[in-house]
Amino acid sequence: MADEHDPKVSAAYRALGPEEPSRAVDDAILAAARRPAQSWSGRWAVPLSLAAVVVLSVVVTLRLQHEQPELVTPQAPPAAAPAAPQEAQPETLKLKVEDQLKLAEKPARKPAARRAEPKPFAEARSDRAPAAVSGAGVAQAPAVPLPPAASGELASRRYAGRGAETPYRDSALRREEERVARDAEAAARAPQAAAALAKRAPAEPAAAARAAPAPAARATAEPAPKTAVETPEHELERIARLRAEGRHDEADKALAEFRKRYPEFRIPEEMLKRVERR
Amino acid sequence: MGGGDEELMLAYRRGDAGAFEQLYRRHRGGLFRFVSRSVRDRAVAEELYQEVWMRAIEARGRYEPQAKFITWLYTIAHNRLVDHWRKKGLQVVALDTESEFAANPGFEPERIVEAKQELERFARALAALPPAQREAFLLHQEAGMSVAEIASATGANEEAAKSRLRYAFAKLKEALGDG
After folding, report:
1. Contacts of A21 (CB under 8 A, 6+ apart)
2. E-strand spans in B30-129?
3. pLDDT digits (tens, 9 = 90+) for A56-92
4. B152 touches A: beta carbon within 8 Å
């Protein structure tokens, strides 16, 4: 290699003199070389610890968010533009629905935590929308898992409800969630009741269709067991049937009980004619 | 302990600090001149030189004698110099272009002890070489590297390394009045 090049150049270069590092630099380097090598764990202990803390924080936060969505889901401020709460609440609702559906699917793991209380429906009825679906009421009967048809029905409602923009108020929303869940439960257990729902007031054809069980369940038109959860509409239908069968005393008693249970429920005019004694 | 550079480095990896001292004594002068004649500033040169050795010390656990120790050491030095040039705004692709010293005949390296005319011209010519050519020349002179080793240490192909070395020699020869 060197032969290819002029040796005079190399000689001139060498004549430039032997430059060398200072003694201080030598000492610093040799001192560093004498220090024992830092082990892998020693070098990475601090960064790994920090990374672990960050990862744990994220996992815990996500877990909390998942288990208690209503605590972390941002709510639209009440003073915001009128459209804001309408958009924010369905998000909360979706999370609740998913959680409640999980409860319904795992009845053995988690018994009923709360019982839905029958409450006035006047407000909720006017605000009813597909998004107002929840499994809150399902938790009432945890010992009996939902049949596949009902589960599928609930799931389809859950997806159908996304993107709905109907306004809700908190109390009405909660009651409506419970009511729809009871619908589903009743429909799953009592195909007849679901058929009755389908014949309900024309203002709610969609709700009736939603509450209807799968075709297989509809085909078996057996009488509803007495343990089925009754909705106000079911109750009214039952009273109307009693009235039609001439069992007026029973109908009167049932109607009085109904009004006691649902003092704010506004009975549609058409239904009123069927349930009241003439 | 005598031994080749690679054996010394392996011994050092196993914890023999004396082996490193031997290695250091062997290569301190050449590596320092390689760095200092690349950056032309003694303070910067000392800083970079120390960093090169520190990197070698830190990397001892990963050292494998797949190539010559000197190629490994000067590759670290080359990479550190490239970082330095980048930090100063010099593009690596510009390393083959003429440096600013080519148009600055007043440049006189302080480290030339004897102010002979011929050596002055030679030193000026060396400083004026494009960085890549100067690097190839210094690797050849200080580390005794072949074209292939220069190519390996600088990440260039052999043709480029050979060409740089040839140009560097031609220009320096011209500065000596033999061109």
Report:
1. B28, B32, B46, B49, B50
2. none
3. 999 999 888 887 765 555 555 554 444 444 444 444 4
4. no
Contacts of B12 in chain A (CB under 8 A): 33
Residue numbers in A near B49 (CB within 8 A): 21, 25
* Tokens 């939603």, residue located: A210
Whole-number percent of chain A with pLDDT over 70:
37
Q: Given this model, what pLDDT does residue A267 score?
A: 87
Q: Which carries the bigger pLDDT value, residue A126 or residue A272?
A: A272
Q: Is the pLDDT of residue B88 over 90?
A: no
Q: Which residues of B are less than 8 Å from A1 in CB distance?
A: 140, 146-147
Coil, strand or helix at A278: coil
Q: Compare CB distances from A16 to B12, B123, B176 and report the shortest one's residue.
A: B123
Residues B131, B129: Cα–Cα separation, whole Å: 6
Please answer yes or no on whether B146 and A12 come within 8 Å at the CB atom.
no
Which residue in A1, A4, A21 is closest to B32 by CB distance?
A21
Interface test with A, best of B33, B73, B117 (most A CBs within 10 A): B33
Q: What are phi and psi of A213, to 5 degrees?
A: -75, 180
In A13-160, the DSSP E strands lie at: none
Look up the ipTM and state it: 0.77
Q: Choose among A7, A5, A14: nearest CA to B119.
A: A14
What residues of B are in contact with residue A20 (Cβ under 8 Å)? 28-29, 32
Q: For the whole model, what pTM was predicted?
A: 0.45
Q: CB distance B172–A22 less than 8 Å?
A: no
Q: How far is A120 from B169, CA to CA, in rounded Å? A: 99
B121 vs A: CB within 8 A? no
Q: What is chain B's length?
A: 179
Cβ-defined contact of A1 to B140 (cutoff 8 Å)? yes
pLDDT tier at A226, thresholds 50, 70, 90: very low
Ramachandran bin of A117, using left for φ above 0, alpha for ψ from -120 to 50, beta for the remaining angles:
beta
B6 Cα to chain A: minimum distance (Å): 16
- Transcribe B104-163 into DSSP letters: -TT---TT-SS--HHHHHHHHHHHHS-HHHHHHHHHHHHS---HHHHHHHHT--HHHHHH
Contact B111 A12 (CB under 8 A): no
